[in-house]
Write a structure and sequence with these properties.
- The complex is a heterodimer of chains A (214) and B (246).
- Chain A has 214 residues and is mostly helical.
- Chain A has a domain at 1-100.
- Chain A contains 6 helices and no strands.
- Chain A has helices spanning 2-26, 33-74, 80-100, 105-140, 144-159, 167-204.
- In chain A, helix 1 (2-26) crosses helix 2 (33-74), helix 3 runs antiparallel to helix 4 and helix 5 packs across helix 6.
- The longest helix of chain A has 42 residues, at 33-74.
- Chain B has a 6-stranded parallel beta sheet, with helices on both faces.
- The longest helix of chain B has 30 residues, at 215-244.
- Chain B folds into 2 domains: 36-213, Rossmann fold; 215-246.
- Chain B contains 10 helices and 6 strands, in the order H-H-H-E-H-E-H-E-H-E-H-E-H-E-H-H.
- Chain B is globular.
- In chain B, strand 1 (54-60), helix 4 (69-88) and strand 2 (94-97) form a beta-alpha-beta unit.
- The relative contact order of chain B is 0.16.
- Classes of the chains: A mainly alpha (214), B alpha/beta (246).
- At the A-B interface, helix 2, helix 4 and helix 6 of A face helix 1, helix 4, helix 5, strand 3 and helix 6 of B.
């Protein structure tokens, strides 16, 4: 009984749900028009349920943050001050949506003037960490591949800047991006698509059971 | 939309996997191509234990209800394998997620790893942490875990973008051994300079086969390779036909 509940029922639910949603997307118009309509309805209902479950998952995520950072503050573990700031910020961020609603002026101002710029600042850091990583690469790994990588990065970056008399660099950049870059990118995407399909199929056939106890 | 082609490909994959699973239960173990990124992965866990620290596994900002769901599941396979080894070596792994839907599943995988080794009492659900729902904020939070906690090995596996360089940078500053498995091209470019072992593209989905060595993973990897060869031949055939046909 325990095995039935913990293993077979989750597998059955996952397989049937996955197949219904997939069929709702894939069945062609010419074939089974009536069933396709039904399947689309079922698919939409299942996707809606998934959205509701995801909303509850956000509540779980919030409790997890409170537990992890609250515990750090209470026990004064390393970095407790930053955890305290995080908890206070999370608390303050609740106030405008609760008082003025999610589309209220104050809520929007909080997003526009606090959360948005903070996110943009962090995103700007990414450019610096990438440049730093390239520099570290030259120090740590002096292989042909590393030199080739840096060379390509330099050509693409310099080719994107409007230097006078460096039109050939822009042409080289375009060629790198559009020919080998595009081919490599498509190859990666095709490979990833195959991997995605096989992994999903493993879940559908019950060979992979991330949701089951056994 | 080429729905017929997608359906055909899905069905052929389904048939192939079903056949291989049936065949794969008997006979010799399927042989798989060597993949340097995963060869030292399990040994690294042992070295983490020797260094007396912990292992951080970042699963990225993908969840279970989006297009990154399968990448996240592939990352969980690495958690399954690494967490088991880590627990055996008395290392408490820290797992960070950027989507709350992945949180209960990652907690469950970790709890089961403890249970399998009869160490349920040592399991602490706080070892799996939800950091933030936005990718950049998640990367910054996970980078803080790498920088501030007693992490001695940093593993990144799942759905990432270029922002993963924040996590990798935190690891590089502490000269930690870093391993990554990602599918997105922008994340590959960001990780190449800072990681010692990098699995790219479809190699992310091969993680389970290499890290666990379980038969069903090996069999599905063989199926994946066969499908790739078929796809490459189809593309080459289409190119030749286009050339011949003018």
């Amino acid at each position: 009984m325990s095995r039935l509940v913990k293993q077979w029922i989750p597998i059955l639910i996952a397989t049937i749900t996955g197949l219904v949603v997939l069929a709702g997307y894939l069945l062609p118009n010419q074939l089974l028009t009536y069933y396709r309509g039904r399947l689309t309805e079922w698919r939409d209902v299942l996707v809606e349920w998934a959205v509701i479950v995801a909303a509850f998952a956000f509540a779980l995520g919030l409790f997890n943050i409170l537990r992890v950072h609250g515990g750090r503050v209470v026990h004064l573990r390393k970095g407790w001050f930053y955890s305290l700031v995080l908890l206070l910020a999370a608390l303050v961020a609740w106030i405008p949506p609760v008082l003025y609603g999610p589309s209220g002026t104050q809520t929007q101002q909080m997003f526009d003037y606090v959360i948005g710029p903070l996110g943009a600042s962090l995103a700007a850091l990414v450019a610096f960490t990438l440049a730093l990583a390239a520099f570290r690469l030259l120090r740590a790994r002096r292989s042909t591949g590393a030199v080739f990588f840096i060379l390509i990065v330099a050509v693409v970056l310099l080719g994107s800047t409007p230097f006078i008399g460096m039109g050939w660099l822009a042409d080289a950049r375009d060629w790198i991006v559009n020919v080998p870059g595009m081919a490599g990118g498509r190859g990666l995407l095709l490979g990833a698509a195959l991997g995605t399909m096989i992994t999903a199929l493993r879940v559908f056939v019950g060979s992979d059971r991330p949701h089951s106890e056994f | 939309m080429h729905i017929e082609a997608i359906l055909l490909l899905t069905l052929s994959g389904l048939v192939l996997v079903a056949l291989l699973i049936l065949r794969g239960r008997r006979g010799p173990r399927p042989t798989i191509r060597p993949l340097p990124a995963f060869q030292d992965l399990r040994d690294e866990t042992g070295r983490t234990a020797e260094r007396g620290g912990t292992i951080h596994i970042a699963l990225g900002s993908g969840g279970l209800n989006g297009e990154d769901a399968v990448s996240s599941l592939a990352g969980l396979q690495m958690v399954e394998a690494l967490a088991g080894d880590a627990i055996s070596c008395s290392v408490q792994p820290i797992i960070t997620v950027g989507d709350p839907t992945l949180l209960p599943l990652a907690q469950d995988v970790l709890r089961r790893a403890y249970e399998r080794r009869g160490l349920t009492e040592r399991y602490n659900s706080d070892q799996v942490r939800f950091v933030a729902p936005s990718p950049v904020a998640y990367a910054a939070g996970a980078a803080n875990v790498v920088a501030a906690e007693d992490v001695t090995t940093n593993v990144m596996a799942g759905a990432f973008g270029a922002e993963v360089s924040l996590i990798a940078d935190a690891g590089a500053r502490r000269t930690l051994p870093q391993l990554a498995a990602v599918a997105a091209p922008c994340a590959i470019g960001a990780l190449y300079p800072t990681t010692d072992h990098l699995a790219v593209g479809e190699e992310l989905y091969a993680a389970g086969a290499y890290t666990t060595g379980e038969r069903h993973y090996l069999v599905s990897l063989v199926a994946q390779d066969v499908l790739r060869v078929v796809l490459v031949l189809a593309i080459l055939g289409a190119a030749v036909l286009a050339l011949v046909g003018g």
